[in-house]
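Predict the 3D structure for this chain.
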Amino acid sequence: MSYRIACDVHTHTVFTRHAYSTVGENIAACRALDMELLGSADHFSSMLFPDQHLRNFQYFLNQSCWPRVWDGVVLLRGAEADIVTLDGGLFGQDIDCPETIVGRACSSDGSLFDRVTDGLDYVIASVHNGDFTKGAPIARSTNMYVQALENPKVFILGHTGRSGVPFDIDEVLTVAKEKGKLIEINEHSLEIDTRGWFHSVCSRIAQRCAEMGVGIVVSSDAHIAPSVGRFPHAQSMLEGIGFPEELIMNRDRRSLLEALDAAGICDLTDLADLAEYKA
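Done. Predicted structure below.
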């Protein structure tokens, strides 16, 4: 079985600081591969700046200036937010944000997370530093992922096979299925996996998704434009286990946008039928 995957919703730009391409360069990479949809999801994390102030993250606030269709590619606005507590707390939720970027008082209370993600289409929730989970019973780390899925902005659990955090796969997948949220199969995790550790965990997660009927998203996690829309390791792994194509929710833009709507994240399904995409 050979899969066509026409959307890449976990990509990074120069804003991430350890990535190297602009959103325009990523769009051009998509266009060159006849990809239908790009999701830009830069890091929303303490790893970017020593001071956690809204001014540092205003890159996310003005993404309404991005065209929804750029050179024939649908462009979604996302962020990859760190999971930072065993209660499934996301970066910025515990940081009060009383002022705008120009220092005016905000009209209502809100956290840094609220301000930054308010105008975004979706959030990917990922663990990058799992030190806070060390020594925790598996029930607590499982609940961490469950609670992250409960967040109304979270659409995808990012690279769970690479996080190094043990969890009850079936329990997390059950919640993901109930809420229509997606589990990521991360190309970059498999690409850097010289010892086969990530491949083993990712394969087990993918196998259970197939058996339980849980939707996945295959992502490049690209940090440079030439990696956008390329998933050779992930595709090979999925082909090896005979993964059902209908559960790959980014196989085309319509499936991805309908999944985004079904999960109650946002309704952008009108973008599925634009003339620019008709063959």
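The beta strands are 7-11, 37-44, 69-70, 73-82, 122-126, 154-157, 182-186, 216-219.
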